[in-house]
Amino acid sequence: MEKPAYTLEFEKPLLELTRQLEALQHRSSENQIDLSKEITSMQAKLEATKRDVYSNLGPWQRVQIARHPKRPGSLAFIAEIFENFQELHGDRQFGDDQALIGGTAFLDGRAVMVIAHEKGSDTKEKIARNFGMPQPEGYRKALRLMRTAEKFGLPVICFVDTKGAYPGINSEERHVSEAIAVNLREMTLLRVPTISVIISEGGSGGALGIGVTDRVLSFENSYYSVISPEGCASILWKDAAEAPRAAAALKLDAGTLQEFGIVDELVPEPFGGAHNDPAEAAKTLHTALTRHLAELSKLGKEELLEKRYARYRALGVYAERAQG
Predict the structure, then answer these.
(1) Is the confidence at residue 242, as pLDDT, over 80?
(2) Are the C-beta atoms of residues 111 and 84 closer than 8 Å to each other?
């Protein structure tokens, strides 16, 4: 049995039980001793502890799973779910932002446009992709691809996975806020079916820049928020170490998002998180995407726009009081 390459704090009891199980198995094999009863008992204890741990995850623990270094990113899901992905580059104004990718592909034989945040899989790639934090040219590239999709009648499928848009000086100089704002407006007007999926992190306007869609799906261990827990903690308590407290205050779990109507469906993950079985996670997401796309494809263009408008008008709670 292989030891986990990376262990989260709340998973440490599982690691200790796994070590004990390995020790029993090794002892039985090396000394030719029948320890089958002890091994079976330890396996049962390990499975029971797993169920207890993963069935009672708090908001901060789900954030940790969403950020797991082995969690599959957009390119991994694209490779598993779509056929013949052809990446398209550049915003035709400034450059090509590798933190936000996009291109044509086929979903079960149907042509679609795929747009996604991509963080990278190793240190060198993470740096090249700016850790998945797009700059304005990334959002302008995304908009160019959305308009191309609309021109050719292709549904748009977006994978959201970012802490937020890049807040650096160069990004601000090139008007990142304006680029995101334009995307928000234009996505409400696209006359083709649109779906977005929060596969890990969905932070602030950086996520919204490709997230205003007809249907919004989320993996059960992803989060979608106006700010990261560290950013919230730094503002409210002047200490980023209060991130777990902030995660609870922000209700950073996908279940709450579904209750509020922000997310239309929670996509279940393999036990313990998508990183434990990326292929199974991709298979489940594939099924959800094809189902939602089939439903949206039955709607006419005007009905599609009306339902999208109604969806976003219904978000949030407010009260009015008569003056006087």
Answers:
(1) yes
(2) no
Q: What is the pLDDT of residues 88-136, one digit of tens each?
A: 999 999 999 999 999 999 999 999 999 999 999 899 999 999 999 999 9
Q: How far apart are CA 18 and CA 4, in angstroms?
A: 9
C-beta neighbour count of 190 within 10 angstroms: 22
Q: Which residue is it, tokens 């995304």?
A: 142
Give percent helix, percent strand, percent coil of the chain, each to the nearest 5. Answer: 50, 15, 35
Taking only the tens place, the pLDDT of each residue in 141-173 is: 999 999 999 999 999 999 999 999 999 999 999
| Mean per-residue pLDDT of the chain | 90
* E strand intervals along 63-214: 83-87, 100-107, 110-117, 156-162, 194-203
pTM > 0.70: yes
Q: How would you classify the pairing of strands 83-87 and 100-107?
A: antiparallel
Tokens of 93: 């104004």
DSSP secondary structure string for all residues of 223-281: EEESS-HHHHHHHHSS-GGGHHHHHHHTT-SHHHHHHTTS-SEEEP-STT-GGG-HHHH
Radius of gyration of the chain (CA): 22
Per-residue pLDDT at 4 exceeds 70: no
| Opening angle at CA 238, ends 222 and 132, nearest 5 | 35
Domains in the chain: ranges and CATH: 13-56 (no CATH), 63-312 (3.90.226.10)
Greatest distance between any 2 Cα atoms in the chain = 88
| Cβ-Cβ contacts under 8 Å for 8 (sequence gap 6 or more) | 61, 64, 65, 68
